[in-house]
Amino acid sequence: DARVTQTPRHKVTEMGQEVTMRCQPILGHNTVFWYRQTMMQGLELLAYFRNRAPLDDSGMPKDRFSAEMPDATLATLKIQPSEPRDSAVYFCASGLVPDGQTVRMDTQYFGPGTRLTVL
Amino acid sequence: RKEVEQDPGPFNVPEGATVAFNCTYSNSASQSFFWYRQDCRKEPKLLMSVYSSGNEDGRFTAQLNRASQYISLLIRDSKLSDSATYLCVVNREGATNKLIFGTGTLLAVQP
After folding, report:
1. Most buried among A32, A65, B2, B5, by the most CB within 10 A?
2. Looking at the partner chain, which of B32, B43, B102 has a beta carbon nearest the beta carbon of A105?
3. What average pLDDT does the segment B34-42 reach?
4. Average pLDDT rounded to a whole number, residues B41-57
5. How near does any CA of chain B get to the CA of A103, in Å?
């Protein structure tokens, strides 16, 4: 049963520290999404990639957040420096979109999330 | 005003009850709509897509009213295992598609 994996599952850090979250998409999937979930805002899309190229990162605070896909099996989301307001659950999702087709949003598979607490 | 609005609940219902959730969206250009289910401390999972003509999947019925920009989910004969948060989701069409999630409605089915 193929799944999206995320590490770490939990992270507690102090304000100002760098945080790196990792995601391994389902093998063969070519789209990767990063979301953040808080009680107040719900789920928000931060960024997404298709064939490792960033397609949309308009939801991501650019000054401290960065997202990359060093290779097809790894996506990273980095926060530097972290702030208490970054405390949230960060989800990665992946999907498969044939070339030439529009990304379909109902075919995303979510990972278990990274629960981040910044003190 | 949020782009997708839901009643946060909680909805406390007895087993076997019928319960309905509503959701409104503000972007009239939206074309695709979904309901996701999220269990406590778990990831969201697609429950069903919502089609213009309405669609049913077992005990679950989803309806769309484009004129009123309103989506609904009806659960019949509710089970304890239906207890979860139900997220209304709208696809914001554009140069790059984007899913907009509501903050969810919490359902607690009581024995």
Report:
1. A32
2. B32
3. 94
4. 90
5. 7
**The two three-digit tokens of residue A8, written as one number:** 């770490």
B67: left (phi over 0), alpha (psi -120 to 50) or beta: alpha
pLDDT of residue B29: 81
User: Which of A6, A32, A40, A106 to probe the B interface (max B CBs under 10 A)?
Assistant: A106
Q: For residues A1 and A13, is the Cβ–Cβ distance under 8 A?
A: no
- Residues 6 or more apart whose Cβ sits within 8 Å of residue A109: A3, A4, A26, A29, A93, A94, A95
* pLDDT at residue A118 tops 90: yes
| Interface check A106 vs B, CB under 8 A | yes
Distance CA(A54)–CA(A90), nearest Å, equals 18
Q: Which of A103, A117, A93 is nearest to A43 (CA)?
A: A93
- Which chain B residues have a beta carbon less than 8 Å from that of A108? 46, 99
Residue pLDDT, tens place only, B19-29: 999 999 998 88
A42–B49 C-beta distance less than 8 A: no
Query: Which of these, A116, A63, A112, A48, lies nearest to A86 by C-alpha position?
Result: A116
